[in-house]
């Protein structure tokens, strides 16, 4: 078991009143337990909570007049059991739960159909968890972690070619390769104490052996020590903050520590 | 009330055994009632049914050895109440049901963020149902319905520029314009007796006044007379047949009549 | 006649020795006369000059060890005769000079084929110079000049949708619209005293009435008062500085004054 | 020396009178000699010949009323000297002829900048002709020649991912890889007796050791036995027929034999 202490501070200015959609709280979900969870956004009206994608975590609607300042503090016990990836078998397609089906399909940042030839050439001899492990190792060995090398429009094809990016880019590539091999894969927003520099983190998650399993293609974090915030098809679905009018970042920090 | 009689025939050859995902049955959903519903696929093993996107309709996993032949016959009473679009108000964002939130976001074929400038310029003075009606009328007036002008990779930007396409292309554009105006919008696969030439049909659906409302930007069909098959973010999610190995079309027909 | 005084300063650091391709000198070409022209790049070896695209202007190969500092000063008399655009007829295609032919075709940043439907809808009733003038006026009226809204990968479709950009983006759109109307169009790098903030400037040039004619869709400059540096298919061909290894900008200024 | 006999037949219908740009005649250029050359297009007015890209070959403007039928027969002696690729050194950039410079840059179908990481990873240890030979061998070994797998919009990134295509796609990839390694590369339209099925053929050409050298990444043809039609940045520039209004193919054949 790992206990994570999370502290996030966000400080933005808005030029006009706007709705904000916030998703930064660790989720009440399998494999983790909230010891404490405290979100404070003075001067911002909390409008309503709604379940996030696949019912994992919540999104919070806020109304921001001219500034958004928010502090989030949580203590989370992670008790996730992480079996060795290599031993996991592919789940027959017809045995997939209904909500996993669309994770076989291409999405905005993960145009998985375009990777089928590469996946067949490079990983065609493998299957199940061994295939995913080989994909993860290939991504980690082939790509360089370079903050600033990508932007909010970068998709998995861009990253596959440029071989540079950050956690979301690595995860987009692994998600795309997995789907190209007909293995359901989704993105997960997480907190990790192992990320340098400290920031929101994102990993891939694949459906094998009848369950979802996180995989970090950057090699930075251990899935046994991650606190899940939310899931989705790709970065589109797991944004920590979505604004419906322009806002300007003034300050942002994410600190995660063990113990 | 309208009663629709549907008959679909599909005939495909497979070069190797493959899983198929079929979604052609009209859904048991609000506004329509199945009088009869009969799907027959001799020689193909039916593996399992799972709920489709948003729990509307079902997807059916099939195992196909070398050929897939399927007949679907249904009789559906459509009792949908269709209020005038112009009278519908925008639902405040924070009042949206959780499952509508991702229909505000860009998706693979509907990169809605790219249309914000155009939507603001052209439709910025309108709101709610009047805005959607103006978008629908603009699409219908500006575009030409040309089978063969688009393909499975065509997205809303392609269609916005080429101004030619089929129902899915029209719907992708309207869905993109609506989302660019911060109005939730999704794709709906439907049966319609008014489509020429007869085929599977697709329309847009927007969330206004606390409920989903179908809109057909091709102008061919009346939402009061449509039988819903399924919904999703864009064409990715509502494919009537997805094969996980190459298959070859031999014959396909869709017939829909009233009465 | 207008006399322009140009002063450019460039200051870059290189992390490793690299070849540089520089194109900042005003061209010895029709409609302008060099009164003086002085390029100085202390510490950088000048390797060779080669004619630039269409024989207009020159590119200069330099070898840079670790830093590139360059000053360019010129005085140019512009005697260009600029007939009213509206009076210019389209040149029959078969009467085009051979070197104008590829300016009818799509290029990297000007995928003109994608604009044919829009051009036909919006400008189909016009021809020749009147058509180009209408396109220029539409671009100027519809787009906002926003430094930072685009980057080196932005193409004419991106700008057509976002409606924001800088001179190169405006020119890419006008070049694309012209080519979509089967009127040869190219990009021109120029010096202008009318650009705010002062910078390298780019305009479109169309082939009408048997000659090339510059058109500035930003509305900032008058073609009669521009000093041409070079031409090409799009921004790819008229870069003022191309490095074959990473270099870092330290300082850059462009000053142009009349008299 | 090889002698090639070429016979081409084209038969198209036009729905309205249109200008056509035809480039199917073998070029009067170094390494090949026209023994005979006869182009006949009864019922189509020949308007004018202009030099094609880089002055290699000619483009022919035609006026077509309602149908275009054309026969081309030529006999060409190919005397091209083809040195072993592996022995060719890179030409220093500053020693490139001016007209080779833009062949270092990305173009519409050859977005070479996107391949730099892959080229450095895979071929970074090699240089000059040995590097090009390794790229050619990699393309030939990795890709499958599949007519119909690509279309007129397919670029080198598409093909790099799908690993399937025809001669133009293979050439686009090799041209892109070469440019990503700062070696000038262009497309060449050629006639070859070795192409199956018989058709117009396209290969890459790289500038090494002070001259252009053709390379066929499909492995089908020997550069010593090719008759050059024309050159350009990519498929955009070497189309055998460009129509400025819709035309419909009725029949087309290309036959090339030795002796």
Automatic annotation (TrEMBL), chains A, B, C, D:
<feature type="domain" description="Transglutaminase-like">
    <location>
        <begin position="159"/>
        <end position="219"/>
    </location>
</feature>
<dbReference type="Pfam" id="PF01841">
    <property type="entry name" value="Transglut_core"/>
</dbReference>
<dbReference type="InterPro" id="IPR038765">
    <property type="entry name" value="Papain-like_cys_pep_sf"/>
</dbReference>
<dbReference type="InterPro" id="IPR002931">
    <property type="entry name" value="Transglutaminase-like"/>
</dbReference>
<protein>
    <submittedName>
        <fullName>Transglutaminase family protein</fullName>
    </submittedName>
</protein>
């Amino acid at each position: 078991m790992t206990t994570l202490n999370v502290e996030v501070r966000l400080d933005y200015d808005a030029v006009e009143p706007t709705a904000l959609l916030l998703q930064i709280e660790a989720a009440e979900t399998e494999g983790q337990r909230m010891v404490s969870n405290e979100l404070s956004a003075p001067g911002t009206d909390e409008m309503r909570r709604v379940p996030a994608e696949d019912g994992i975590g919540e999104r919070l609607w806020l109304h921001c007049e001219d500034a958004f300042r928010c502090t989030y503090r949580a203590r989370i016990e992670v008790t996730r059991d992480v079996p060795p990836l290599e031993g996991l078998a592919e789940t027959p397609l017809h045995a997939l739960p209904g909500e996993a089906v669309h994770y076989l399909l291409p999405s905005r940042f993960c145009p998985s159909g375009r990777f089928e030839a590469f996946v067949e050439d490079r990983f065609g001899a493998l299957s199940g968890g061994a295939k995913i492990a080989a994909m993860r190792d290939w991504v980690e060995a082939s790509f360089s972690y370079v903050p600033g090398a990508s932007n909010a429009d970068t998709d998995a094809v861009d990253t596959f070619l440029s071989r540079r990016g950050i956690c979301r880019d690595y995860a987009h590539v692994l998600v795309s390769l997995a789907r190209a091999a007909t293995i359901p894969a989704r993105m997960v927003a997480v907190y990790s104490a192992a990320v340098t520099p400290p920031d929101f983190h994102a990993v891939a998650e694949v459906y094998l052996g009848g369950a979802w399993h996180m995989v970090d293609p950057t090699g930075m974090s251990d899935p046994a020590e991650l606190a899940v915030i939310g899931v989705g098809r790709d970065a589109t679905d797991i944004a920590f903050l979505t604004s419906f009018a322009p806002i300007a970042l003034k300050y942002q920090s994410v600190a995660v520590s063990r113990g």
